[in-house]
Design a protein that fits this description.
Elements: H1 23-34, E1 39-42, H2 49-63, E2 67-73, H3 80-91, H4 100-109, E3 116-119, E4 126-129, H5 137-151, E5 154-160, H6 173-181, E6 187-193, H7 196-204, E7 215-218, H8 224-235, H9 244-253
Parallel strand pairs: 1-6, 1-7, 2-5, 5-6
Antiparallel strand pairs: 3-4
């Protein structure tokens, strides 16, 4: 376990040891995903959505064999092509052994988009990028989903800040993604977003493609008493402790 100086993790995921509470949410998400349900996770920024997703994915990979989890943050993407490029870099090649035959198979599968392969020098993990032409994002997205389907592996994909697709210039992206994912028997999704109104409109409105397609969850604040116990447990290893009044001030400022 990597030691960190500040137990108040505000960004990212540092591992289960530094993950506070969320036992009920973790169990609910793991059970739902294992039982083949998609999840919509809605909460304001800095409420811990990303950490919860990574925590759930880590537990799933520990508990079940032949499971692959992928996390995508599409907040910075401006169109469907950029989203597909991000998916390609995160997913393609990660479902295969790092053998020449396996990598050759991937390159042949995506040959129309001239995949470029790079190997991480430290981990040996392959990364592919696709040379997408304008207006090929839809077909490329379908191809990536087919790649996951044909892998035979159970895949979990989290798409964070999912409401960003509403800002894409292409028409019908919602319906397009919905039409693809409903035919993936081994791939399940977590759609996460911080814009509550937009996410609820997408997933709770009867006239939208994603209506009743997933379990909708929200994240409340972590109870102060639980957070205090968590913090002092970690601080105790450094022979330190935070008193109730000081913690209450920190908690109210977070």
């Amino acid at each position: 376990m990597t030691t960190i100086n500040n137990p108040f993790v505000m960004y990212g995921y540092k591992g289960a040891e530094y993950f506070c509470d969320r036992e009920k949410e973790t169990e609910k998400m793991m059970t739902s995903l294992h039982n083949e349900r998609n999840i919509t996770l809605v909460a304001p920024r800095r409420m811990g959505k990303t950490g919860l997703i990574h925590h759930v994915f880590q537990q799933l990979e520990k508990q079940y064999d032949d499971v692959k989890c992928f996390y995508l943050d599409i907040f910075a993407t401006k169109n469907l092509e950029q989203m597909v490029q991000l998916m390609a870099s995160e997913i393609i090649g990660k479902l295969d052994t790092i053998s020449q035959s396996a990598l050759r198979k991937v390159q042949e599968f995506f040959s129309s988009w001239r995949p470029t392969l790079t190997i991480d020098e430290l981990t040996g993990i392959p990364t592919f990028s696709l040379d997408l032409k304008p207006n090929e994002g839809r077909e490329s997205l379908k191809r990536i989903f087919e790649y996951m389907k044909q892998s035979g592996k159970r895949c979990y994909v989290a798409i964070d800040e999912f409401q960003q697709i509403m800002n894409y210039p292409e028409n019908g992206v919602e319906a397009l993604i919905r039409s693809y994912i409903q035919f993936l028997p081994n791939v399940y999704f977590v759609f996460s977003g911080s814009q509550q109104h937009m996410m609820e409109e997408m997933f709770l409105s009867a006239n939208r493609p994603f209506f009743q397609s997933s379990l909708v969850m929200s994240l409340p604040c972590i109870a102060e008493s639980k957070y205090l116990s968590f913090a002092n447990r970690l601080l105790s290893s450094q022979k330190r402790e935070v008193d109730v009044d000081t913690f209450t001030y920190i908690y109210s400022q977070a």
